[in-house]
Specification:
The chain is mainly alpha-helical. The protein contains three helices and two strands; from the N terminus they run H-H-H-E-E.
């Protein structure tokens, strides 16, 4: 069973992976165009490394977006479930939870 806590853990893990992957992107950002060409296009190995970096960044972003969508759905589900319960205070000021029948 997937819980909201599990989903938040997955989101944190995904964001951490994205952060680590961005090191390569930030390295590229600091390069001149000549350095960029020399590192990534002077050999097939360099071009493959560049491709893998971009692919990993895209894949991690899709993963993160999917997890956020799942969190949204779970929060909506929790809210809908909580709307079906009404709290009534008894004569001793203790709350009673009453579950309303499903529509």
């Amino acid at each position: 069973m997937t819980t909201l806590g599990n989903l938040i853990d997955q989101l944190i893990t995904s964001c951490t992976k994205m952060y680590i992957n961005q090191d390569d992107l930030y390295e590229m950002r600091r390069m001149s165009f000549e350095e960029f060409k020399c590192k990534y296009f002077s050999s097939e190995e360099g071009a493959e490394k560049l491709w893998l970096t971009f692919k990993r960044a895209c894949d991690l972003n899709v993963e993160r977006s999917d997890i956020i969508d799942k969190i949204d759905s779970e929060v909506i589900n929790i809210i809908e479930q909580s709307n079906k319960t009404t709290k009534i205070v008894g004569t001793n000021n203790l709350p009673y939870n009453i579950t309303l029948p499903k529509d």
